Amino acid sequence: MAMATQAASQGKQVLRHFLGLCYLSKKENAIRVRIAQLKLDTFLKMYFKEFEFVYAHDPEKKCKPGDTVLIQQLPEKMTRLITHRVVDIIYPLGDTIDPISGKPVYLNKYRDEVEKVKELLGKHDKSFNYFEAPPRGRLEGIRDFTDKETYVKYYDDPNDPQPYGY
Known about the structure:
Layout: H1 2-9, E1 17-23, E2 30-41, E3 46-57, E4 68-73, E5 82-91, E6 105-106, E7 109-110, H2 111-121
Parallel strand pairs: 3-5
Antiparallel strand pairs: 1-2, 1-4, 2-3, 4-5, 6-7
């Protein structure tokens, strides 16, 4: 932290990285990212989580809603809204991995532990199996329309269905 303050006082640009969650965006070649920050309430002497939304440049359109991404602040704004760029996708939606053990996680438990509990209690035929599930994105264009361009639907007309509007 002291090096960043010293570099900023010397007029150097400090590159900052943030971890955030992707959301849908109407901007072309950009995604909206929610960044969580802890703010101190001086009266209660407690930290509370607050969220900030920023737009990040994503020209390859590799990010999807729900992905956890690493973004970097740009040295200067690309547009009035786009102030960051996507560095990497840390976790795709639903594929969270514990960084210490390297095991996949479901909520707050390891997936293999959840499977052991299912075996002990009796596995149901219709229960979801993470290990046999296909990768995300296989239903693009069939049931998953996150790759389509979104727009606001201003009217309902049976002759003009507007399938990707919201």
